[in-house]
């Protein structure tokens, strides 16, 4: 097994996963939780023994993935984080996909209480995300097609 993607991603992979499935990766038992909203294919992986969750770009430290391109949907992202991440025990450690700013991990408690975006109401969150006006990423037109083919053809 070289690459794993959500069955809802539309990309090419050696293995596809869906919500609730548990996969074994080098002895780690990873529970798949579908967390769409940044993209349709975003999943988070929970390792209960280590009390850890890997959230990719769905939830970042005091931020979240953008929702203004690809299949982004801020209402869906809000529900994903609140229903699939914030329902985990509050001491679970969160490892995110990027934007570390020197901080490598956070926790369910911290993001539930301190994330300035996700502590808003859903309506406020949707409005906030709509008004972000972020720059279009320089490499996105190359990166997305490459990611859909397991990333092998991508080079900057
Ligand atoms: Fe992303």
TrEMBL record:
Biological-process GO terms, alphabetical? glutathione metabolic process; hydrogen sulfide metabolic process
- Any Pfam family from its record, for instance, is Lactamase_B
Can you name a GO cellular component term? mitochondrion
Domain named Metallo-beta-lactamase is located at 17-98
Q: Name one GO molecular function term.
A: sulfur dioxygenase activity
InterPro entries attached to this UniProt entry: Metallo-B-lactamas, Mito_Persulfide_Diox, RibonucZ/Hydroxyglut_hydro
Kindly provide the name given to this protein in its UniProt entry.
Answer: Lactamase_B domain-containing protein
What organism is recorded for this protein? Answer: Caenorhabditis tropicalis
Write the lineage as a comma-separated list.
Eukaryota, Metazoa, Ecdysozoa, Nematoda, Chromadorea
